[in-house]
Amino acid sequence: MIDGAWTMWGKKGEPGRVQTVTAALDLPQWGPESGPPLRVAVAGDFHLRPRGGRQARRYMEKIMEARPDMIFLLGDYANGHTRKSSMSPEKARGYFRMLRAPLGIFAVQGNHDQYYGWEPWKNMFTDLGICAMWNDSFLLHLPGGRKLQLSSVRDDYHMRIRPEELPLRLSPAIPHILLSHVPDIFPLLKPGTADAVISAHTHGGQICLPGGIPLGCISREKVKFTYPWSRLNGTPFLITRGLGCSVLPLRLCCPPEIIVLEIR
């Protein structure tokens, strides 16, 4: 009876209880005179199912409740390993168009988006004015005269990332944030390459013991991540537990989340 109740909660209850987690990143290149903190909504691992419209709408509403200056979308918009198991980009367009951020929306690709095919997702985002990133690096000019280098790394599920693919830092005087669907790129990163890496993929374990202790190790590198921050190879990693479910349609002791990151 208890097992059945937990299963019902993990399937019908907890996946719908999206939390908002706050975090802060202090950049040494920006001083207090640079202006108010940059407010960034961080969301990943949507795993949109064919009939998941109600959930998709709730995800977008939760992101917009944060009143973000900027939005980082961290991959796995598609669900499962075939197109039949996933909402199509054409249908998802109606939900992602709900997102607004005055300083831009940036989307990277996840491993499930590779299974579906990244091209239709990339085209959908581009049509909506969302910047779909793939091993890209941009220099952003922000209010108050602040500069920010924002880079991305493609997901490496099918073909391992090579060190020469990693974006080069423009200057130590310009803060550098790297978006990567998986946090397991950390062995390739030399200290000082980025001021922070922002990742998803792990789902926080998805099915955990009380206290958020994962039942298994999600990392390809067999590392136990901490949430929301880990320090890996000398670099701070912000890792979100994500929004959706993969493999099993359950979440236990690991509620879905968006992160509101204040960069100052």
From TrEMBL:
<dbReference type="InterPro" id="IPR029052">
    <property type="entry name" value="Metallo-depent_PP-like"/>
</dbReference>
<feature type="domain" description="Calcineurin-like phosphoesterase">
    <location>
        <begin position="38"/>
        <end position="204"/>
    </location>
</feature>
<dbReference type="InterPro" id="IPR004843">
    <property type="entry name" value="Calcineurin-like_PHP"/>
</dbReference>
<dbReference type="Pfam" id="PF00149">
    <property type="entry name" value="Metallophos"/>
</dbReference>
<dbReference type="InterPro" id="IPR051158">
    <property type="entry name" value="Metallophosphoesterase_sf"/>
</dbReference>
<protein>
    <recommendedName>
        <fullName>Calcineurin-like phosphoesterase domain-containing protein</fullName>
    </recommendedName>
</protein>
